[in-house]
Design the sequence.
């Protein structure tokens, strides 16, 4: 409830408490002025006795009302009794002097508060009868004209009061509905605020989880990159140094030392670029087809295994992430072939098929059983799982076909995403 509403309710409360006193005082003043209560007759004694009774009644009700103030404006038996007794005193006073109709009119303003339900209309009608009697010239009537006038005034007063009561009741109903609506809106706003607070907390939690997921993904990426650069480079260097250790002439040793040195420089460059999330060294100046061609040629020269690279379809400039992923898959497949396949021939085919790119790596090595692969150990590489994870990271797939004694075929299929630069 707003401050204005509380102020209005307080004013109405004051009117209901002090209004009857004021109306009674107006009636007394006018009655005295009209000499109705100045002569010491039976009427004089009766009038002042009724005025005293009216004051006593108001004082009693004032005290009763104060004790019941915490219950609100709820009709009660005490309120109904007060209304009836006050009407009777008002009717008697109006019979003595019509000016006391002012006091009788007090019934118009608090019938809804004092009388329950359908009896309110009866109370209003009773007050209208008293007021109409005073308006018709005062009780008792001395002619038929006064009775006719009285009947018309009763109809007019009661009809007017019924309309006012009906409008007041409707306004009270609307006021209750507004109060209920405001209460419901406050409840809804509170629930909405709670939902917003929960949503903000959930949003913060999702941000934390996204950040943690991003950190974990970046760690996996760096681990894979380091494996593809430093680990494979060191493997090549170790292989070259093993040849040097067993070499019988200086020329052979010098050749393999040069290769080991070249691998070390190449791996160092790859490691630096991988840490900074840049494209592989091989892609720094060349597109993917040229980079794959050089990678396969260098691998063939280093391992002594015959290797061929083929491009089918119309070659296009791929997005850096797509090109880097396919290059890493080839590097991992070549590393696996060098270490495990014991192949004599190897072929790499890059196929551009409109909306996707297919990369095939085949060798005629000893093959293996894909279902019998041991789990990756802490000391092992990323191998097939790493290649598959790379392909899936860019919405691609990787399939492996292998059989003991019949070689191995690795096929990566990824969407063709062009470089938008």
Sequence:
């Amino acid at each position: 409830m707003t401050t204005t509403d509380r102020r209005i309710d307080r004013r109405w409360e004051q009117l209901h408490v002090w209004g009857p006193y004021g109306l009674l005082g107006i009636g007394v003043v006018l009655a005295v002025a009209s000499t109705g209560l100045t002569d010491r007759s039976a009427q004089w004694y009766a009038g002042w006795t009724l005025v005293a009774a009216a004051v006593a009644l108001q004082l009693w009700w004032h005290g009763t009302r104060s004790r019941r103030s915490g219950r609100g404006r709820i009709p009660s038996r005490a309120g109904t009794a007060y209304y009836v007794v006050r009407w009777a005193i008002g009717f008697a006073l109006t019979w003595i002097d019509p000016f006391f109709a002012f006091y009788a009119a007090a019934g118009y303003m608090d019938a809804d508060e004092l009388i329950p339900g359908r009896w309110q209309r009866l109370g209003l009608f009773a007050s209208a009868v008293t007021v109409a009697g005073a308006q018709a010239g005062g009780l008792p009537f001395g002619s038929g004209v006064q009775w006719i006038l009285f009947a018309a005034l009763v109809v007019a007063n009661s009809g007017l009061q019924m309309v006012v009561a009906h409008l007041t009741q409707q306004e009270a109903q609307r006021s209750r509905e507004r109060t209920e609506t405001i209460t419901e809106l406050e409840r809804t706003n509170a629930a909405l605020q709670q939902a917003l607070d929960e949503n903000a907390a959930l949003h913060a939690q999702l941000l934390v989880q996204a950040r943690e997921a991003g950190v974990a993904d970046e760690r996996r990426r760096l681990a894979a990159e380091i494996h593809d650069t430093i680990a494979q480079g060191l493997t090549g260097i170790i292989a070259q140094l093993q040849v040097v250790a067993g070499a019988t002439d200086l020329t052979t040793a010098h050749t393999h030392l040069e290769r080991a040195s070249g691998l070390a420089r190449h791996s160092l460059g790859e490691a630096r670029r991988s840490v900074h999330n840049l494209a592989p060294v091989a892609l720094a100046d060349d597109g993917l087809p040229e980079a794959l061609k050089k990678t396969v040629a260098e691998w063939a020269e280093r391992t002594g295994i015959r290797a061929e690279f083929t491009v089918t379809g119309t070659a296009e400039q791929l997005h850096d992430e797509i090109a880097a992923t396919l290059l890493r898959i080839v590097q991992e497949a070549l590393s696996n072939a060098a270490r495990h396949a014991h192949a004599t021939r190897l072929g790499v085919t890059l196929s551009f098929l409109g909306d996707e790119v297919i990369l095939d790596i085949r060798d005629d090595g000893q093959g293996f059983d894909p279902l019998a692969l041991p789990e990756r150990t802490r000391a092992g590489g990323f191998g097939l799982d790493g290649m598959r994870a790379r392909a899936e990271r860019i919405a691609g797939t990787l399939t492996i076909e292998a059989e003991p004694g019949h070689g191995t075929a690795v096929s990566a299929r990824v969407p063709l995403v062009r470089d938008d630069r």
